[in-house]
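In the current project phase, we have settled on a layout for protein records. One protein thus recorded is set out beneath this paragraph:
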Amino acid sequence: MPLHVILLVLFGALLHATWNAMIKAGTDKSLDASLISAGGAVCALPFLMFLPLPNSAAWLFIGASAVLQFVYFQLVAGAYRAGDIGLVYPLMRGCAPLLIAATSGFVLNEKLSTGALIGTITICAGILTLAFEARKGSGHAIRLALANACVIATYTYVDGIGARLSGNAVSYTLWMSLLPPVLLFAWAISNRGAVAVAMHVRYNWWRGLIGGGGSIASYGLALWAMTKAPVATVAALRETSILFALLISVIVLKERASPWRYLAGAIIALGGLILKRG
């Protein structure tokens, strides 16, 4: 994988960790996730007029991705309510690229080099190491996290293929971002009522814009990278976002770091070096 692709994916991983930290710090994780999804759509709108429409073959993938993103955000909120983030996040983000690496040969007919495969597995092992740090968690939280890992792997395939068919990965990303917030807010209003949702939006709209901008930029960089390198290796490298999340937790949130965090960081960094050489 070229160095400039690696650096851009890592920058996207930093953005991903930042908007996830914003959800974690919020008072209502479900509505904050919806706000960030909507913020991404708002940030996308001004740029649509300057970009070509995705090719017709990509629109089916855009629709399928919207549904999968809706499920993803629902499972994220549910998993964070059920268990500790130290258990849930590593399981979600660590298992997904493993699933992709195991199946990409069948789905995309992509053959990973030995170095790329070892690097992918090493990064996933580092991420999963963080699960040992978790102090609380239930079987329900683990099931939700594993279910979401399957969803993440599925929408990664859908969007990786869709971005390639679209003819323009940036245009695909921006159009793909428009429908999920519609589904999320429709669901929130039907369950919470319009007044409660409107009050949350009134006081937290800034969170949606900042987090949404980071979210759309992060995923756009990943989809662009998938047009330049194998989907499995990009997916694994993108999950280094957990390393940035750990840095945020220690430096910004002043949380104590256990030895598992430092071990995981070393393993993830080693995986990144193997990917570069592979």
Q: What stands out?
A: Residues 194-226 form the longest helix (33 residues). The two ends are 7 Å apart (CA to CA).
